[in-house]
Amino acid sequence: MGSQSRRVVVVGAGLAGLRVAEAVRAAGHTGELMVVGDEPHLPYNRPPLSKEALAAGVTFETLQFRRRTSVDDVGWRLGVAAAEASLESREVVLADGTVLSYDGLAVATGVRPRRLTLTAPAGGRHVIRTLEDAAALRSELGPGARVVLIGAGFIGCEVAATARGLGCEVDVVAPEAVPMQRPLGLTVGAALQRRHEGHGVRFHLGRLPAVLHPAAADPQRVGEVELDDGTRLPCDVVVEALGCAANTEWLAATGLDLADGVRTDGRLRALTDSGLVRPEVVAAGDVARFPNALFDDVARRVEHWSIPTDTGKRAGASLVAGLSGVDLDGETTDAAFAPMPSFWSDQYGQRLQSFGSLGIADADVDAVRLLDGDLDGDFVAGYHRGGQLVGVVGIGLMPRLLALRGELLATLTVSRPG
Ligand SMILES: Cc1cc2nc3c(=O)[nH]c(=O)nc-3n(C[C@H](O)[C@H](O)[C@H](O)COP(=O)(O)OP(=O)(O)OC[C@H]3O[C@@H](n4cnc5c(N)ncnc54)[C@H](O)[C@@H]3O)c2cc1C
């Protein structure tokens, strides 16, 4: 049977789902192509949800992705979740009971925000992942609103900066010693904390929320966050920015390795618990845990905007090759999968830009070195593993950052040939 008579089902209608669909068409699949998404929207862009869209107003029209004509004939099944899947019968069951059979399946279901497990009133508590989340949060932000952010990662810090820009009072609570500590380390995190404090953000670090008290005027809403040292922070709004969990529950019965997202090989083909490749199932985007030959053979999930495009292209090509009976494992000419990770974060009108993998740097203080500038102004810092540069981050100094990106590509690719 040729690829034209086969059905490809993509689950997840975000950036990764869109990119997989485009790649499936680009690789020559002319058969049926369906994309299932639990949100009611066609794919849209998430980064503005904590930045310019949160500041200026959230609309689908300004956030939607341009869709190539190659995906004009995609069958979009929106507003309905995939509830379960069976690799044996090659079927996905939707929450409304519809059963979709597939020949090729792409998993692009992304991640969702983790929530506080404390018993607490629901009113006034927010997360930020979807357009509706951002619109709901936006409606509560304004001059004088007291916002407590739980979590000091990138998204938490972006919301803190946007909320200050809207005139809110902002407290940030997090268990780490400095904001953005996990990706950036202590020195750079401390420098960014100083910038936030310069804009009036108050940090409560090394602390966890212990109790979320109801508001006196409305017991359905949270009115005060009590920390584990007894500090009490009166609030109108709580934003839970505690990191994310992969959306893989619907794959629970498949036997795939779902330890943290869907584990794949370098071709983005899903692996079972026992390490077997399933060539008819691929994963892409935030939900995929894949090895990057630039660094090593450890499979990792990467929540950067550049990754759905890199992984989506590769996953779509792998899926169509599998459907067409191409033995990818016999291929010797295909280069190893080695995308250069890249992310940015906008805070107070300044852009933090990174290339490479900061998170794999060694833990000792020498692993993070100031390469240029001044940490309280424009700067570039380098992150090292075993003495080798594995990532860079900076504010301003874009020419230097781009030069270092080139250096990373050259040195990391040389050390790990495809
Ligand atoms: C507020 C915010 C700010 C960000 N800022 C930046 C930034 O500045 N820089 C950067 O590099 N990255 C940023 N990111 C990360 C970036 O947006 C993500 O890496 C990217 O959106 C991942 O795309 P994805 O398609 O893999 O996942 P998603 O965009 O999450 O898409 C997955 C889709 O699948 C749906 N889904 C889940 N389960 C099911 C199911 N069972 N059935 C059907 N559909 C399902 C989800 O609802 C969602 O629509 C930000 C993310 C957020 C949320």
List keywords for this structure.
single chain; 418 residues; alpha/beta; 6-stranded mixed β-sheet; 5-stranded parallel β-sheet; 27 strands; 22% helix; 30% strand; globular; binds flavin-adenine dinucleotide
Give a short summary of the structure.
By secondary structure, this protein is of the alpha/beta class. The protein has 9 helices and 27 strands.
How do the helices and strands line up, and which of them pair or pack?
Elements: E1 7-11, H1 15-26, E2 32-37, H2 52-56, H3 60-63, E3 75-78, E4 82-86, E5 91-94, E6 99-101, E7 104-107, E8 111-113, E9 125-126, H4 131-138, E10 146-150, H5 154-165, E11 169-174, H6 181-184, H7 186-198, E12 202-205, E13 209-214, E14 222-227, E15 232-234, E16 237-240, E17 244-246, E18 262-263, E19 269-271, E20 277-283, E21 288-291, E22 299-301, H8 306-323, E23 342-347, E24 350-356, E25 368-373, E26 379-385, E27 388-395, H9 398-415
Parallel strand pairs: 1-2, 1-7, 2-3, 7-20, 9-16, 10-11, 10-16, 11-12, 18-21
Antiparallel strand pairs: 4-5, 5-6, 8-17, 13-14, 14-15, 19-20, 21-22, 23-24, 24-27, 25-26, 26-27
The structure holds flavin-adenine dinucleotide.
Flavin-adenine dinucleotide binds at residues 11-17, 36-39, 46-47, 49-50, 81-82, 108-110, 128-129, 155, 247, 250, 285-287, 303-305, 308, 343-345.
